[in-house]
């Protein structure tokens, strides 16, 4: 039992010393959830997250950033895009197409609109995942519009079909959502979908964090692809920072002091005082003493000059 739990948490990226210490404290019969909570409480992090914290502290990291796991082998032909300042884009083709088709028609034109929107912004790495059976002729129960767009995107190396086959007349379909999340995680990119992937969040704690921080939702307004300007909420990064590898942090905005010149907090006041040059945080009493000392010192100097 000890070895199985040790192997399980080692696969998640935690160190053996931390795991053994927790198992000694909680006992060998401790539940996996309890062990995981104790590891998080101790401050232990998976190796993928520790590698993110190792670079110099002077480097600003955007909220929601995530480091790629070492030894990534996904889509090596596009590694030249790693120097680009924009994040890779991974689009959930089925989700986008059904959303554009009002959940009734698989509209390939919606996928084209999303791809064009990211291309106009300058993104060079764009991948769309669609199940292979969407290449089949449309049926009444599964209507498809503008199916030729899939062929054009496949020729441009933008669209990727996830495997599917028929066994004794029944279609066997691979889970395309797992492809989408895995590629986006490996490439340190952004997932474009209105799906929350809750089942995949429960599979892997690192995927859970990544999906929460890198999921870009969207809307279609009159055949216009529109992601939100604040993908992570009002207090999160802007859309430009969310899609950028090197986000530009806004300059701090100083709030003026509501008491103005009557403020008596001095250097303890956390608000901005425009009347104080270079934000000289002196108390009112100190300012008065400085004004009194100045004329007194001038008078003494003049008395010493007079014979």
From TrEMBL:
Transmembrane domains' residue ranges: none
Keyword Hydrolase listed: yes
Pfam family for this entry, one: UBA_6
Origin superkingdom: Eukaryota
One GO MF term attached to the UniProt entry: mRNA binding
Gene3D superfamilies for the chain: 3.40.50.11980
Cellular component terms per the entry's GO annotation: cytoplasmic ribonucleoprotein granule; nucleus
Cofactor annotation: Mg(2+)
Residues spanning the signal sequence: none
Domain C3H1-type residues, every copy: 251-276
Zinc finger extent (C3H1-type): 251-276
Keyword terms, alphabetized: Endonuclease, Hydrolase, Magnesium, Metal-binding, Nuclease, Zinc, Zinc-finger
Family: Belongs to the ZC3H12 family.
Protein name per its UniProtKB record: ZC12D ribonuclease
Annotated source species: Corythaixoides concolor (Grey go-away-bird)
Organism phylogeny: Eukaryota, Metazoa, Chordata, Craniata, Vertebrata
Gene from which this protein is expressed: Zc3h12d
């Amino acid at each position: 039992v000890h070895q199985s739990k040790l192997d399980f948490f080692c696969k998640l990226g935690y160190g053996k010393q931390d795991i053994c210490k927790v198992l000694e404290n909680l006992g060998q019969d401790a539940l996996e959830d309890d062990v995981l909570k104790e590891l998080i409480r101790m401050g232990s992090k998976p190796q993928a997250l520790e590698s993110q914290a190792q670079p110099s502290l002077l480097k600003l990291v955007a909220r929601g950033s995530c480091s790629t796991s070492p030894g990534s082998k996904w889509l090596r032909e596009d590694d030249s895009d790693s120097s680009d300042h924009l994040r890779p884009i991974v689009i959930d083709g089925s989700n986008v197409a059904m959303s554009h088709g009002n959940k009734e028609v698989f509209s390939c034109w919606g996928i084209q609109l999303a791809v064009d929107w990211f291309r106009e912004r300058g993104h060079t790495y764009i991948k769309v995942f669609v199940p292979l059976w969407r290449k089949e002729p449309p049926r009444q129960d599964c209507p498809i519009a503008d199916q030729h767009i899939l062929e054009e995107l496949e020729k441009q190396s933008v669209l990727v079909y996830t495997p599917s086959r028929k066994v004794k007349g029944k279609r066997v379909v691979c889970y395309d959502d797992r492809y989408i999340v895995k590629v986006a995680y490996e490439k340190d990119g952004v997932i474009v979908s209105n799906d929350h992937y809750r089942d995949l969040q429960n599979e892997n704690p690192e995927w859970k964090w990544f999906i929460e921080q890198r999921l870009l939702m969207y809307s279609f307004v009159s055949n216009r692809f529109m992601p939100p300007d604040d993908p992570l909420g009002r207090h999160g990064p802007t859309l430009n920072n969310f899609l950028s590898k090197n986000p530009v942090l806004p300059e701090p905005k100083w709030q003026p002091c509501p008491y103005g010149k009557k403020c008596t907090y001095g250097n303890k006041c956390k608000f901005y005082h425009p009347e104080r040059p270079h934000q000289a945080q002196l108390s009112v009493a100190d300012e008065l003493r400085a004004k009194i000392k100045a004329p007194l010192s001038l008078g003494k100097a003049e008395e010493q000059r007079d014979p």
